[in-house]
Amino acid sequence: MTNRIALIRHGQTEWSRSGQHTSTTDIDLTDEGVHQAMTIPSLLWGVELSPVTVWSSPRLRAQRTATLAGLHIDEVVPDLAEWAYGDYEGITSKQIHQTNPGWSIFKHGAPGGESPEQVADRCDRVLARAKDKLVDGDVALFCHGHISRVLAMRWLGLPVQHGGLIQMNPAAVTVLGTYHDEPCLDHANIIPFRPPHVGS
Q1: Which residues bind substrate (predicted)?
Q2: Catalytic: 144?
Q3: Catalytic (active site) residue 187
Q4: Is residue 199 part of a domain?
């Protein structure tokens, strides 16, 4: 099996739980987010991925997720920061749609923040560097929900506008691989199985 890239979203925060857009606001994980982060090693084991290169977003929530997953961060990469939401920082899509119906971060970007083209450029830079690291082994990128989706689209050669085609739950793993030497999504949005509730 050829070496692959794991996109790993940080564990749950108060704002990810409420659906508030979180980029520059540097908040920590909830207790649930801590638990989620600690399940990541089993997810990586399940997809037979062993990172030898680990990069993280500068945000606390991403770095703490990597640490709780038992992985040493080789480099903090500014380009892995979440999409800059500008005027939409801290508010939900439902609130945004009340004044801006039909808005999509992937199509329209954020006023006072980043455009889709700017985020695509960042993701292309990260992926170019990560591809070079694949000669040494698997790569893990600890980052965020929207930036992860753009990374996946750009790996496939698709425009940012298609970012809504995949989901990225807190602490989920998406694996970028190849099929017959062409880029593919090897796995998408993997989260731990929850045991059935006894007595329900």
Answers
A1: 61, 82-85
A2: no
A3: no
A4: no
